[in-house]
Amino acid sequence: MKHAQKRTLIALAVVSLLTAACAKKKVTAAAPPAPVPAPAVAAVKPAPAPVHAASTPPPAAVAQTQKYPSAATRARIDELLSKIEDAYFDYDKASLRPDALKALQADSAELRDILKDYPNYKLTIEGHCDERGSDEYNMALGDKRAESAKDYLAQVGIPSAQLNVISYGKQRPVCDEHDEACWQKNRRIHIVALAQAQ
Fold first, then answer.
1. Contacts of residue 94, Cβ cutoff 8 Å, sequence gap at least 6
2. Containing domain of residue 100, as a range?
3. 80-95, pLDDT tens digit by residue?
4. Do the bridges between strand 163-169 and strand 188-193 make them parallel or antiparallel, or are there none, so unpaired?
5. Alpha-carbon torsion 87, 150, 146, 68, what sign?
6. Which of 53, 151, 156, 168 is the most buried (most CB within 10 A)?
7. Is residue 22 situated within a structural domain?
8. How many structural domains does the chain have?
9. 106, 147 Cβ separation under 8 angstroms
10. What is the chain's percent helix, strand, coil content, to nearest 5?
């Protein structure tokens, strides 16, 4: 019997060694490999940036600056706007007369060509009326007059998104006399550059 017990004990010892060895192999196989330090990479310093890269603005900055004209271009726009005469309207009308169309045509082609390159630069079309009529009525009429001019300038090719309208009604007359000659001067649209922060 002693011999049978020895065999059983040896068999149990072999089985437990095999079980332990297999369990160790599974644990060892499942563990991730230890990171290998890379002293050569840590010792290498990053290459300095090229000198020309520091002087060249990133593409986003270039695109942003190109959307707003330079001082010289803004001066040219102001010069063109000063040449474009105010467009005048008949009493109680918002449709553009032939003389108003002629006034808006002056230099509008060059203005269009400049503005298309600067989508952030905007113009304001002011609508004005004479002193007759209520404030509310004249505000609405001034708005219609400004919209008529905006529609025409958009047809010429100036982007509509760059044209704002505002009505001053009878609040900003250029003439204070109470006769037809004076009232005619007040029934107008006037175009100005919209003041913007740069």
1. 141, 144, 145, 147, 148
2. 86-193
3. 887 788 889 999 999 9
4. unpaired
5. negative
6. 168
7. no
8. 1
9. no
10. 55, 10, 35
